Amino acid sequence: MKLSYIKELLRGRKTVLTIQDMVVLFGLNRPYLRTVLGRLVARGDLVRVKRGLYLVQGKEANFLEMAGKLKQPSYISLETVLANNGIVFQDYSQTIFSVSNNTIKMKVLGKSFEYYKLKDDILLNPLGIEIKDGVMQASIERAVCDRLYFSPGYYFDNLKKIDAANLLRVANIYNNQRFQKEIEKLARKIKE
């Protein structure tokens, strides 16, 4: 077993890798890569999270990165973004909330992952989606819109960090009258 594979894994910034990531990283064909992965898992250098998804042993797991690779297409949003930015004060640290093309809940390595279904024309629209440390995440305004789309009348603890103009701009992609009225009402409240 070449030590260079392990060094390559430990040197990189990623903590969670798909088979495709490792095809690119190692430049191996898939059949041989499966053999290498089996050996790395058997030796304890990699941890198999689920089929086709591996965690680099010796590195702290980045659960946001993992959430993006467990379910694709998806992006981090809802309470994960809102709590991390001080918009809601409740502790949601045990669960990563994301938006995807179907609703699913799973638990991996003691962490809960919840994905909420959003129509493809909204989900795949890049407006209000940012890439932070290689992870697709909603902006504050996109996360607010996502939450209100799924939960009408949702209460936000802190409105100061929400940009009303950007909120209205992002809200246009949802194409829903009830939702649009609620966003306009929230934008007026933010401007007060």
> What's the pLDDT, averaged over the residues?
91
Total helices: the number is 9
> Strand portion, in percent?
15-25%
Series of secondary-structure elements, N-terminal to C-terminal = HEHHEEHEHEEEHEEHHH
The side-by-side strand order for the widest beta sheet comes to 4-5-7-6
Radius of gyration: 19 Å
Q: Give the end-to-end Cα distance, rounded to a whole number of Å.
A: 64 Å
Low-confidence stretches: none
Provide a descriptive summary of the structure in words.
This protein is of the alpha+beta class. It has 2 domains: 3-61, Winged helix-like DNA-binding domain superfamily/Winged helix DNA-binding domain (Arc Repressor Mutant, subunit A); 65-191, no CATH class. It is built from 9 helices and 9 strands. Strands 4-5-7-6 form a 4-stranded mixed β-sheet. Strand 2 (46-50) and strand 3 (53-56) form a beta hairpin. Helix 8 runs antiparallel to helix 9 (177-191). The longest helix is centred in the C-terminal third of the chain and has 15 residues, at 177-191. The mean pLDDT is 91.
Walk me through the topology:
Layout: H1 3-11, E1 16-18, H2 19-26, H3 30-43, E2 46-50, E3 53-56, H4 63-70, E4 74-76, H5 78-84, E5 95-100, E6 104-108, E7 111-117, H6 120-123, E8 129-132, E9 135-138, H7 140-150, H8 164-171, H9 177-191
Helix pairs in contact: 5-7, 7-8, 8-9
Provide a short characterization of the protein structure.
This protein is 44% helix and 21% strand.
